Structures are given as C-alpha cells and as structure tokens.
Amino acid sequence: MIVTLTINPAIDRILSVDRLAFEDRAYINSIRQSAGGRGLNASNVIHSFGGQTQAVLISGGASGKRLEGLLEGCGFPIVLVPVKNSIRTNLTITDKQGLTVNLNEVGPALTGPELAKVERAVRRALDGADWLMLCGSTPPGVPSSFYAKMIGLARQKKVKTLLHVGGDSLREGIEARPTVATPNQPEAERLLGRTILTRAHSLEAAAQLRAMGPESVVLSLGSRGAVGAFPDGLIEVMPPRVDAVCPIGAGDALTAVFTWSMSRRDNLADALRWGVAAGTASSRLPGMSFASLAQTEEVYRQVEVRRVE
C-alpha cells in the first residue's frame, strides 16, 4: 500500500488554447476540471498502473465539495480531513505548441486543531502501509517542519517515505532523512543557492543533496531525464527525445511510478527508469494528463540508464 498525503489539494482548471503569445489574444479550445494536488496525482497514476494506494487530503468549503464530487468513482480509498476554509483553485493554460502557464492559489489557512486532525489521519493510514508519499506545497498555518514530523512518524512505523516538495519544507524534510527526496531542478537550485546548468552540475547537486540526509535522491531534470544519487552510487537516466505537448504534471508522474516500481521490489535504477519513462510519456499528452502503463512501457524501452564511474 502506498499512502499519499495532499495537504494542499486543488480544483485544477485546465484551459487548452490555440496559442499563447504576449499581448495577444488566444482562443479557448477546451476547458476541463480535475481534482488536483501532487499527492492526488500520484495516487491516480499508481492506481492506473495497478498499484494499491490510499489518498489522505483536506477538504473544505464549496470548492471542497466540488473536489469530493470529482473524486467519486476514482477507484481507490480516500481519507478526507474536513477543514473550515475553502480549498484552492488552480489555473493551467496550455497551447498546441506546449507552452504552458500555471497559476496557483496559496490554499486555505489551517488551524492547529485542523492540522492535528491531519496528523491523526496519516497515523491511522500508515498501519499496513509500505510507503508514505509527502507531496506538494503546504497551505498557510502549516509549519515548514510538518513534513519532517511526518517522516519521523513513518520511520517509527517502519514505513518508507518519499518527499516531493520544495522550499523550506524541502530543506527541513531532507534533514529528517526520508527514504527518497525527489526535487526538480528549480527546487534544487533554490535549496542549494546555485544554478544547475551542466551535467557536472547535476551530478554534483544530486550528491550534495544526498549528503544532507536522505537515503537516496532523485533530481528531476525535465526533458533531460534525471540523476539518481543512491547508496551504491550515481546514475543518469536519459529519455528519448519526444515532442512535449504539456510538461505540467510530468514530475508527479515520475515520482508516482518510481514509487510504484519500488513497491514491486524493483531496484533503484530500474525504478528511476520507469519513473523517467512515465514523466516523458505524460509530457507528450495534451493538458495535464498522465500516461497509461502501455504508453509508459513504450517509452521505457527507449530510456537509457548510465552508471557514473
């Protein structure tokens, strides 16, 4: 069982337009809504791959009711923690060339008692779990140490953890020694205070991040694949070149399928190969969509894994 926590879920509104251009109008081709947030995205992908998952998330206000409606029939168990304020609505605009604009609200302010309810829900969900995925931003009222606290709780229950966040939550979470930390390039650059431009920069950054506490690090590099800093050394995972239509959500696909693969007892290198394949396959799809297992398998066969000597 893979448990995901989404403490800042959203209604994702995705607008597909003919083209995005500065100071020029665009025409909307389609609009769709979905239940969003990194953890929910991960559970959706894991479930579609045949994995077992349970999603823990907050819900509040009119937008929370809409979120709950969108989750009906999702196929996996949901644990809803009620809160007073409305959850956020995010807007993604993407055109046919793959240019994308993502506009996110900060989310509802949580009270101390509400946060305590989230902690209790996570504690109960961990019984019988193999992995806990801590995903996405935290709303106002949640201290940056929150994910670090959840990592400690999971460790007490002998549950492995994956940390998929940015900002101060990433810094404090990494220091809590999760099983895997999965920052993307911009998140890693902000944490390390330097630009990651070259292959050497990427390898050095992944090793430096692992030295800060995690057992393993997956540094996502977008269309260039990923670098894994694992207990047995560094690896580079390079996808084939594809025509990316919408890269938003590709990182969520990568982390979800990496964890799915690890839950099958695959080795770290092969799990990262699967993850990069899923992210690459998802980037070829319009809007914020996630590739199926069959679509991912097609790309998986073309992904190159190289061990760094």
Measured as a percent range, the helix fraction is 25-40%
Strand order of the largest sheet: 5-4-1-8-9-10-11-12-13-14
Tell me which CATH architecture applies here. 3-Layer(aba) Sandwich
- Tally the beta strands: 14
How far do the termini sit from each other?
Answer: 35 Å
The CATH topology assignment is: UDP-N-acetylmuramoyl-L-alanine:D-glutamate ligase
Please tell me how large the radius of gyration is. 18 Å
What is the residue-averaged pLDDT?
93
Count of discrete alpha- or pi-helical segments spanning 4 or more residues: 10
Low-confidence stretches: none
Name the CATH homologous superfamily. Answer: Ribokinase
Number of self-contained structural domains: 1
Q: What is the level 1 CATH name?
A: Alpha Beta
Please identify the structural class as seen in this structure. alpha/beta
